[in-house]
Amino acid sequence: MNTLTAPAPSGARTAGNYAPVFVEHETTRLAIKGALPRALNGTLFRNGPNPRFPTEDSHWFVGDGMIHAFTLEDGAATYRNRWVRTPKWLAEDAAGRSLFRGFGQTRPGTPAGIDGGVANTNVLLHGGRLLALEEGHLPMALAPDSLATEGYVDFDGTVAGPFTAHPKICPQTGELLFYGYHLGGGFSPVMSHGSIGPDGRTRRFERFEAPFPSMVHDFAATRNHLVFPILPLTGSLVRARTGRPPYAWEPELGSHIGIMRRDGSAADMAWFRGPACYVFHVMNAWEDGSRILVDVMQLDAPPFPLADGSPAFKGPPPRARLCRWTFDLAGGSDRFHQTFLDDLGGEFPRIDDRLSGSANGHGWFAGAGPAAAPGSFDTIAHFDFTTWRRNSHAFAPGSSVSEPVFVPRAADAAEGDGWVLAVVRQPEAEHSELAVFDALQLDDGPLATVTLPARVPAGLHGNWVPA
Ligand SMILES: [Fe+2]
Questions:
Q1: 2-466 domain in CATH 1.10.3720.10?
Q2: Contacts of the segment 26-30: beta carbons below 8 A, 24+ positions apart
Q3: What global pTM score does this model have?
Q4: Per-residue pLDDT tens for 76-96?
Q5: CA 277 – ligand 1 centroid, Å
Q6: How far apart are the CA of 31 and the centre of ligand 1, in A?
């Protein structure tokens, strides 16, 4: 066990289950309520912001990444957590204070030339490497067993600039499909896309220009197409330099969605337009004849201010809801349709990843029941696209639920036949739990609940790696 300390400020994004933890654990067998399925063997890796030196003026999105690894083997569970030792983390640890404000901004006295990446958003295995991802920087490689930080990966110098935290792994080709935004820095509208083969080598890297510089947190990939949502949460260097919001909501710009063939060029991108909306996360996308369908968690407005710094909405932040976008590549119109599928607010949509890019019959997300605190989730929801029904499990009011990750029962199991894993913190609990559900029977409650040695702060994304 490795304990590090730091001053503890008070503020909405540094309190409750957003508060960071300062102990790095390495446990032996953990206590389990119920029984873990014996066939569930592997590790759930999960990433999330956990600032080494929390401050009240830093956005939660820019906290230092901490990896939580939950290893399940033959009915037993162990846990390990480690900060990602980025250049920023090492510099701040040595200085004993926060040096960066985030979004490219430093604090007075910060030495020049320190990379500000936080590697805090997602973690996945590809090409034999465990990669911690954050969209402003290249992937950071970690040792899968020890979680020790190994350094940035630039794929032999073939990939430059920011790299999304939401790449897609194509089940057919094994490629890691990715994009980047703000290439060249300064909130530029230049973007990239590319692919890394299953051997870890770059197959494709191409740049293109978006209609305007936007925060592009996720994209979609079908078997033959890539889909880039350019939504009006804009970045501006001029605003950042004049004390205004670096990122701001400009709904008058509308939504612009770029679609290109995977075997084509961004020069031939088709652009579709629609009313302003914001989407952090895509559930899945697929093709149906000349149509492209994309299921997203859609917000009326993101939790960012207007360009003049005034609030973009009154009252609590809006909730995202499951929404289907439909594009017709042969339709002769540059408009796309948006249809909400569910009325439960939620985020962190996932599918059975073997269906990534193809039509899926099942999806899961973290939901917000009527008693959920603003910005947090207390429910795990399953949406059945064959019956258009939702099945869910609500934890006690005030609980905090993380992204539900699906694990198939076996490599050749039917879609949805398996388990869903999520990290849960019961209200005010000192310890978080790892809850394991039958993926299609959420309302039966957890099959097993692993008591963790500490609280796991509200975090972002992760993935299962089979043993
Ligand atoms: Fe995300």
A1: no
A2: 26/1, 26/79, 26/80, 27/78, 27/79, 27/80, 27/453, 28/78, 29/76, 29/77, 29/78, 30/76, 30/77, 30/78, 30/79, 30/450, 30/451, 30/452, 30/453
A3: 0.96
A4: 999 999 999 999 999 999 999
A5: 16
A6: 30
